[in-house]
Amino acid sequence: MAPFTPFITEHIYQNLRRLQSKPNPPESIHYLMLPKPIDWLQDNVIEEIVNGMQTVINLGRLARDRANLPIKSPLAEVIVVHTEEAFLTEIRGLEKYILEELNVRKLTLSSNKAAYNVKLRAEPDHKLLGQKYKKDFKALLTAIKGLSDAVLEECLEKKGTTVLGHWIDLSELRIHFVVGEGSENGKIEVASSGSLLVILSTERAQDLIDEGTAREVINRIQKLRKKGGLVPTDPITVYYAAEEPLLEVIHKQMDFIQKAVKSEVLSLSQAQAHTDFLLKEDFTDIKEMGKLTLGLVKEPINP
Q1: Cα–Cα distance for residue pair 256/221, rounded to 1 Å
Q2: 107 and 71 share a domain?
Q3: Tag placement on the chain: N or C end, fewer CB within 10 Å?
C-alpha cells in the first residue's frame, strides 16, 4: 500500500516497528522492498469467478451505454447466457453484486441463447485477411458473413473454421451476437465477449421510471449537502417544492428518498417563516418533469 498511501502506511509501520523482534529494523517502510507474493495463498479459482463477474458487469454497462440508459435508471432484468453450467453456477453465487452494480431487479441465467432469438454472426478482420488472401478476399468476405450459427459455435470451440477451403483462425474473425428478426429489438440490448452473452431488458415499467426520477432528486439533495460543506452524519432537514408531475413522483417515492438521504424530507410549505436555510436552490427540468426547489436546514446535534 505504501506507494499509494505513503503517510498512513508509514504511521502503521512505525507502530509495528516497535513490536518487531529483529534488531534494528529499517527506519521507514519506504526503505523496504515490496514483498514477494506467496503463491500458495493465491486462490486461482476465486480469481476466475470474480473475473467472470466483472466481465458480466462490464458487458451489462456496455449494453446500458448502447441503449443510452444511465446507471441511475433501474431496469427489470439482466439475462446471462453461457454454454457452461459451471460458469452460470459461479455467477449465481455473485448475484447480489451484479444486481447492485447494474441496478437491475432480476438476474436470469441460461445456456440456451436460441430461447432469446439471439444468433452468432461473424465479421472478417479486413486488414489481416485482405493482405493474406488478396484477390480471394471478396469471396471469403461473403462466405464468412453467411456462416451459420452452428458453424460459428464450432468455430469458437475449435478456435477457427474452414471457409472455401481456407483455414480461418478465430483471431482473424470478430464473432458477436445479434438479435434475430422478429424479436422486440427496442426492448433489449445485447453485449458479448466470446461465448458469454449479456442481454439487458430495456423496457421500463412506470415504477422503475419513477424510481429513476427519485434517484435524480436524491442526487440533487446530496449535491446540495456537499455544496453546504456537510458530511453524511450531519443531521439535516430537507424541504422541497416541485411542479407536477414531479411532485406526484416524489410523494410516491418519499420513503425511498428519505431512506437514501437519511433525513426527514418535508414540503417547503411546512417550513416556518423564520427558518434559516443553510442552502436553497432551484433545479430546473428534472428529467423533463418540472422544476424542483430544495432547501437544507442543519439541525443541532443532540447531546
Answers
A1: 13
A2: yes
A3: C
Does any domain span residue 277? yes
**Range(s) of the domain holding residue 125:** 118-179
Q: Over the stretch 215-251, which tens digit does the pLDDT of each residue have?
A: 999 999 999 999 999 988 888 999 999 999 999 999 9
Lowest mean pLDDT among 6-10, 178-182, 255-259: 178-182
**Pairwise pLDDT comparison (156 vs 301), residue with the higher score:** 156
One domain for residues 99 and 168: no
- Residue 193 and residue 63 share a domain: yes
pLDDT of residue 186: 55
* Single-letter code of the amino acid located at 132: K
| Among 241, 302, 244, CA closest to 267 | 241
Residue 275 burial (CB count, 10 A)? 13
**Hey, how many other C-beta atoms are within 10 angstroms of the C-beta on 303?**
3
H or E stretch including 106? strand 104-110
Phi/psi of residue 77, each to 5°? -155, 145
Peptide bond into 300 cis (omega under 30): no
d(CA 46, CA 187): 34
Number of neighbouring beta carbons within 10 Å of residue 126: 11
Task: Answer yes or no: is 1 within a domain.
Answer: no
Q: Which residue, among 274, 282, 250, has the nearest Cα to 297 in the 3D structure?
A: 274
- pLDDT of 153 reads 82
Q: CA-to-CA distance for 20 and 18, rounded, in angstroms? A: 6
pLDDT of residue 89: 93
C-alpha cell at 66: 448502447
DSSP string, 40-78: GG--HHHHHHHHHHHHHHHHHHHHHHHTT--TTS-EEEE
pLDDT over threshold 90, residue 9? yes
3-state secondary structure of 93: helix
